Amino acid sequence: MEFLDNVSSVLNFNLFTLGSSQITLMVATVLVFASFLLIAFSKITQRWIVHKLMAHSAIDVGVRNAVASLVRYVFLILGFIVIFQSAGLDLSAFSILFGALGVGVGFGLQAITNNFMCGLIILFERPIKLGDRVEVGQIIGDVINISMRATTIRTKGSISVIVPNTEFITSTVINWSHHNKKMRFTIPVGVSYKEDPQKIHTVLLDVAREEPGVLDNPLPVVLFDNYGDSALNFNLSVWTEDYMTKPAVLRSNLYFAIFDRFRKEGIEIPYPQRDIHIIDMPKDSQVDTL
């Protein structure tokens, strides 16, 4: 009995007072344990909504993540209220804390608050979504994660860049795959002036159709761009889905194929050149010079 009394006295030891509520060691232990279970359960619920409840729906994965994130935050808020009330805490005592947080948000946490609100806008307006190929500032890459504070972009070098959400709302953002996962690339090609433009048109289209990474719909297009200083300049435009994250590979494959086909067809790729015309000086000028 004496041991139990000692344990009881330790657990009922008053750590501090919050308003009219006394925070004992037992209350603090229950609060920590219950909060840990609440956070863990909220994460499990969020994953279950995305990968189980809404997995077979036609809803886009970005919308599923937005709904699951919102449900989790609401679940956490309600859960903490229930935990505090079950522990017998006087919630009115938190009014001072909330007031202090309000002042902190107005000053020190303004940037975090802006990013949080922009994160909500991104999740629901969806100017970008998971898997999109985007360009913001000098950063180009694929969106791999959208959180409430920042968005993670993976560049072509597999480097993860953490971008604050405000950048996607207040800055100009280029979304290469906003409506679909198709992307167009233009390959400039120059040939000698002695070549037949119609033949070049046919050869370039054949090369594009033979490349596995080029889509048949939309069709590849060859445009006669201009008369250059040393060459007839053409633009080969192709569409792809497989090379969105590695456009340099597709461009290299096409240039290799074009060079090989031009060599077989005897098509000349000209060197840059300049014509210099030398005009003979009059004889009188030559005498004066001597």
Verbal overview:
The structure is a single chain. The protein has helices at 2-11, 25-53, 61-86, 95-106, 110-125, 166-170, 197-210, 247-265, 283-289; strands at 14-18, 21-24, 133-136, 139-146, 150-154, 160-164, 173-175, 183-191, 221-227, 232-240. The longest helix has 29 residues, at 25-53. It is 48% helix and 20% strand. It folds into 3 domains: 11-108, no CATH class; 128-175, SH3 type barrels, CATH 2.30.30; 183-265, Alpha-Beta Plaits (2-Layer Sandwich). The protein is of the alpha+beta class.
Count of extended strands: 10
Q: Give the overall average pLDDT.
A: 80
Helical stretch tally: 9
Shape: elongated
The rounded distance between the terminal residues' Cα atoms is 130 Å
Number of domains: 3
H-E order: HEEHHHHEEEEHEEHEEHH
Please give the largest β-sheet.
5 strands, antiparallel
Summarize the structure.
With 290 residues, the chain is an alpha+beta fold. Helices cover 48% and strands 20% of the residues.
Keywords:
290 residues; alpha+beta; SH3 type barrels; Alpha-Beta Plaits; 3-stranded antiparallel β-sheet; 9 helices
Fold blueprint:
Layout (H helix, E strand, L loop, with lengths): L1 H10 L2 E5 L2 E4 H29 L7 H26 L8 H12 L3 H16 L7 E4 L2 E8 L3 E5 L5 E5 L1 H5 L2 E3 L7 E9 L5 H14 L10 E7 L4 E9 L6 H19 L17 H7 L1
Helix pairs in contact: 2-3, 7-8
